[in-house]
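Response to reviewer comment R2.3. The reviewers asked that we include at least one raw input/output pair. We reproduce the pair for Putative lipoprotein with Yx(FWY)xxD motif here without editing.
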Amino acid sequence: MVVGAALAAVITLPGCAPAGFDAGAADYGNAAEPASNDVQASPGATGEAVAAADPTAEATAPADPAGGGEANTPEISDEVATTALNATKVARMGSTVQDEDGFVLYRFDKDSDDPAKSNCNGDCAKIWPPAVTNDGEPTLKGVDKSLVGTVTRADGTKQLTLKGWPLYRYIGDKKPGQWKGQNVSGTWFVITPAGTKNLTCLPAVSKPVAPPSDGTSGEAGSGEAGGDYSY
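Raw output as returned:
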């Protein structure tokens, strides 16, 4: 009977979740999606409205008292900026958040959500390009706009956050909908529309790909596999 009960417990684990996975843990993807996948796209929210709804989301940069205008924020090219956050279900993994090109977005355990802060810079940001933005207002589908905010990175650019967690792509994902960054270094996880980790399928811990050899942040799909990096 004991063996049978143990076997039943393993069988009922969702997807390929690890042994000991707690389906009731608030930070592990059990929360219901804030909106269905077919809701009408709408602009995201930044500034005071977001700060009031989510204290972890950073408001729009205040006016520069010295210059009388907005704080000097580096301009992001249209090719680099993330302009959409779409809740999308993919095979085996389930709920994901994808950008305008269909690439899955991730969160990093070494970041913080309260206050929101990115700790992925330098080569880390070449492997995990941040979801940067100029206006902090991506179009949304299936993502609650009250959970969307921005955080200022070390280089002065603005990065989109979801429930306070900075968002990233992974250059090891070579096609839209892939999630090869799941559990890389044991610190990177697919993010759900609710901002939680998605542990529906948890592969063995793996190393990230190497950063692009040209020294740029690169696009998804660049980089060589098997790099010995700790990010």
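The CA atoms of residues 6 and 88 lie 33 Å apart. The radius of gyration is 18 Å. Further pairs are available on request from the corresponding author.
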